[in-house]
Amino acid sequence: AGMRNKLGHMDKTIQSLMMLTANGICRDTTVMLDQVVQDVVFEVRMTDSKQLKFDLELGEHLVIKGAETEVRTMLHTLIVNAVEASPINGVIEIKGEKNADMVMISVCDQGSGIDESIAGRVFEPHTTTKVEGTGMGLYITQRMAQLYYKGSVTLDNGENGGCSAHLMLATEGDV
What is the pLDDT of residues 161-175, one digit of tens each? Predict the structure, then answer.
């Protein structure tokens, strides 16, 4: 089953990469980030065996121009990473804030934080500490944010342990 999961995951990764190179993706739709976050959390909850608690603080007007599939892919990566890093009964905080022409979504978990050994390489392809991982999620997320949303992803270890991932996106994508 492990191999099949890995292949399934690689398939998804390849599909995401193909989306990255696909011309003709329409990036001028209005994307409601709070709804996308809630959707992803709902999906993730269906397979969550750790009884995690999701603490969402998403303000109004977290709206950007972009392609919902890309935004969903980026948020899905960060939220799934947080779920996988979390201890049983852990809390994942997801906050959204808007300032000027940027929106920031932060996903904070109570896991063990980023492993020192890979801290400098987390955005490089094929960097992973997960048995099943392909190490492409953060790489794709960072590339998408930079290429199409004048944005970025940053990761830092919290003072009380855990990792915080911050996704910055311009409200007016690549227009």
Answer: 899 999 999 998 654
